[in-house]
């Protein structure tokens, strides 16, 4: 018997999920989303890797347009994800001279953010700029042209020009679990604000893991809140997997740890001043929708999301509904 839970979207802040065009064609997903969700983040099709798959000269908007049209038809705000990411666009930008690179960089942001004006209430303007060990910022094809803070500043300025009404976010992961990375993120935010960057919101992806020490999640959310900006828990999931091949804990034991992590995060988020609770977004609704359950990452067992493959509430959904 599925655990019946109240709609998550009854929360006093937007509750989001990642979504793809496959999902909106799946009636079971649509029913679940209509019950629980009040905001949408494109999981893949609004990324540069998709839009510039055929090169700079032939941008593809079929996928992202379908997602945007669906969000609009459902009356749900969309959180745009993502304009500039170290991991994407290198190929499309290779071989350009400086002037052509600048035109392409500025033009991409103007075109994409401009196209979804009025549908995207917000954007992840820059995704994942911090090095994994927290020792600094990533070196990438954007930073090699504009500098490590420079590409971020430029991207935010162009995004603001393209859609002056959108709330502009920085977004990164492992900020709670790797203290040096969290600290580096806070330092970057401070520098950007000092430099006059139109940074208006702080995204923490929250791809969590079960064995994070108690308290680190709540502590980071409190630090993040000190800037007074809106905060987005932007990509929550909690994998049950660990790196230890000798870890023999059962799924039930792992899910108990998972629930503790999610409770800590949800309670820390709910405790924020209302104006700072931008949205709380899960990186998919059903375990089977998770990026951990696709392709070579899939072990067929991971349960990282609030609902099971049949749409029944997992313990994670139950604790979210209680906390909200
Ligand atoms: C992932 C998606 O879930 C996958 O479907 C896609 O193939 C690759 O990207 N951080 C991010 C997200 O900001 O965009 C990533 O999403 C997960 C990690």
TrEMBL record:
PROSITE patterns per the UniProt record, alphabetical: GH10_2, PROKAR_LIPOPROTEIN
Catalysed reactions, semicolon-separated: Endohydrolysis of (1->4)-beta-D-xylosidic linkages in xylans
Coiled-coil stretches: none
Keyword Hydrolase tagged: yes
EC number(s) given by UniProt: 3.2.1.8
Keyword Hydrolase listed: yes
Xref: InterPro entries: GH, GH10, GH10_dom
Keywords: Carbohydrate metabolism, Glycosidase, Hydrolase, Polysaccharide degradation, Signal, Xylan degradation
SMART domains, A to Z: Glyco_10
Chain ranges of the GH10 domain: 2-323
Family: Belongs to the glycosyl hydrolase 10 (cellulase F) family.
UniProt-recorded name of the protein: Beta-xylanase
């Amino acid at each position: 018997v599925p655990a019946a839970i109240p709609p998550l979207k009854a929360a006093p802040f937007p509750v989001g999920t990642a979504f793809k065009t496959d999902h909106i064609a799946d009636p079971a997903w649509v029913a679940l989303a209509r019950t629980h969700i009040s905001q949408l983040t494109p999981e893949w099709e609004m990324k540069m890797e998709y839009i510039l798959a055929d090169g700079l000269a032939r941008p593809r908007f079929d996928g992202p347009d379908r997602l945007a049209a669906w969000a609009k038809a459902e009356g749900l705000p969309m959180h745009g994800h993502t304009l500039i990411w170290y991991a994407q666009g290198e190929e499309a930008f290779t071989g350009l001279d400086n002037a052509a690179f600048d035109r392409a960089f500025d033009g991409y942001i103007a075109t994409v953010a401009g196209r979804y004006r009025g549908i995207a209430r917000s954007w992840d303007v820059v995704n994942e700029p911090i090095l994994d060990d927290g020792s600094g910022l990533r070196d990438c094809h954007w930073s090699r042209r504009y500098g490590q803070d420079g590409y971020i500043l430029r991207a935010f300025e162009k995004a603001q020009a393209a859609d002056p009404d959108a709330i502009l976010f920085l977004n990164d992961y492992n900020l709670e679990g790797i203290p040096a990375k969290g600290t580096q993120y806070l330092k970057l935010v401070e520098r950007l604000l000092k430099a006059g960057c139109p940074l208006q919101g702080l995204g923490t992806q929250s791809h969590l893991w079960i064995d994070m020490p108690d308290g680190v999640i709540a502590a980071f959310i409190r630090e993040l809140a000190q800037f007074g900006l809106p905060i987005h828990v932007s990509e929550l999931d909690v994998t049950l997997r660990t790196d230890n091949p000798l870890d023999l804990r059962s799924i039930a034991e792992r899910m108990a740890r998972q629930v503790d992590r999610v409770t800590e995060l949800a309670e820390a988020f709910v405790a924020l001043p209302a104006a700072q609770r931008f949205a709380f977004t899960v990186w998919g609704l059903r375990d089977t929708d998770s990026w951990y359950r696709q392709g070579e990452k899939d072990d067929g067992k991971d349960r990282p999301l609030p609902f099971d493959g049949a749409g029944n509430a997992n313990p994670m959904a139950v604790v979210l509904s209680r906390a909200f």
